[in-house]
Design goal:
There is one protein chain. By secondary structure, this protein is mainly alpha-helical. It is 68% helix and 0% strand. The protein has 10 helices and no strands.
Amino acid sequence: MSSHSRTPLALVTGRSRRDVSDAEVAEGLTLGEDWAITEAWHRFAPLVLMTAERALGSKSDAEDVTQEVFTGVFRNVKRLRDRDSLRSFVYSVAVRTLRSHLRYRKLRHWLSFSEPETLLDLRHSVQDVEGREFVRNLYRLLDRLSPRDRLVFILRRVDAMTVEEIASTMDISISTVKRSFAHASERLSRWIAADPALSDRLDGKLEARPG
């Protein structure tokens, strides 16, 4: 199994080697060791997949992005100087990949003048009709945000990352994170307030957290 091969998502359910440190996994990856490739997938793929699904609103898109993320990780891990920061490295690759994907999807929507394809998976995973409509409408609003604002909002509000962690992961300043989050929160709050079906369920829940 090479470092550029496609890792099956079924490996997410496998057992991780708890006795191996992130630094040892990183070292194994730089050497192209099969065990390190598998271990990196066991250890980090669930987190990447969950974040991608939250950001994109589509399980199938999230799975594709997760594959792309780990292709990037395996290809570029030799550039990682601090082996102990492998987790942060994987997450930064994930965020860059998600941002690129969101930009492409927004551009594709603009060029096609069609309804965004977001939410098809998550919408159908919700059992009741009202819940599916709620998810569809909520992610439709997220689709109106810029890729950066959307990712900052998801990482801060859903993944509960600190402002400092987001700044480091996205390679932007802390002040930019704060502005982006405030901008996203303000726009979403305004749009939700104009939609009774959403405002009744999310009243006051999108207010910006202090930095």
